[in-house]
Amino acid sequence: MEFFYYVYLFRIKATGKVIYVGSTRTVGERINEHRRSMREDDRAQPIHKYLHANHLELIKDVEIDIVDYAKSKQKGLELESYYYHKYEITAINVWDANKRDGNNSPRQRRLVSKDGKDFYNSQRDAAVKLGITRSAVAQMVKRGELIPQLIPDKYQNIETGERFASGYQVQHLYNLDSKTINKLNKNGEIIVNGMTIRKV
To answer: 17 and 54: one domain?
Structure first.
């Protein structure tokens, strides 16, 4: 069976502005995940918070355009990154696809100071602890003042090959509750939508 990975955009109807780029193998499911995240505050990601703050609704105010497709996950992510940079999506998309290891599966990077004395769990963590913006943290990374280190993967989707550095990523990708993640940690694997998620 052949699978396709679709690249989609959120575009504000009134202005034509593209505010989000994503990729997925299952368009309908992904749209439903976005709509669910709009309804439930604890699932909201920056794009959903942006939509709320600007009183925008998916479908009604923001159209979803499928703009490209690929026959492999890697090519899909490359295309997603291309559109991400084409439309200069910076503040609302959390992750450039070039920095991701799977569909909606960002690789978390710990940051270490140049002298190796200070550690930060993420750009957000560094921004909070240093009292600066995340874009300022990104500039420190570019200048070599902070050095990124990949956090080892802890979980894998056996069917798709996607790997995750934290239970948080699994939880938010598949819209799971905390009990399910606890079960994953206790039993070593769970079944989600017919797919096996396993500790590695």
So the answer is: yes
